[in-house]
Amino acid sequence: MSSTPPITLTANDVQRLERLLDDMSSYGPAAEALEQEMARAQVVERSALPPGVVSLNSRVHCREETTGKDYHLTLVMPQDARQEGTVSVLAPVGTALLGLSVGQHIDWPTPGGKLLRLTLLEVEYQPEADGAQ
């Protein structure tokens, strides 16, 4: 990853993600990338998470800068990523979006070696702002 903007995670999300990583039978590059992101994050209580920050189960609007293609995605745990419009937190783009704030962008390599630049345009829904668990 060539660009690493500051990120913020909730303590609740960190606990859920730590359990996910602990329960994984194999620990490959996706898990390592998620662990690295968690290690560099500022961790706050749910009530202190600003509204424009991506948390688990947030729905976001982002743009891939090279193509100009817009995406509306919901960031979910791997077992919930079977529906259209969802992205697993273990997918490279999911890991990259976690903790990102509106206006920030990330550069993230795809499995094929291409570098994507995604800009977060809006957090359309954030569970913490809505009072959801």
From TrEMBL:
Residues of the Regulator of nucleoside diphosphate kinase N-terminal domain: 5-44
InterPro entries linked: GreA/GreB_C_sf, Rnk_N, Tscrpt_elong_fac_GreA/B_C, Tscrpt_elong_fac_GreA/B_fam
MF terms in GO: kinase activity
Domain of life: Bacteria
Record organism: Stutzerimonas tarimensis
Keywords: Kinase, Transferase
Protein name per its UniProtKB record: Nucleoside diphosphate kinase regulator
Residue ranges of domain Transcription elongation factor GreA/GreB C-terminal in the record: 50-125
SUPFAM superfamilies: FKBP-like
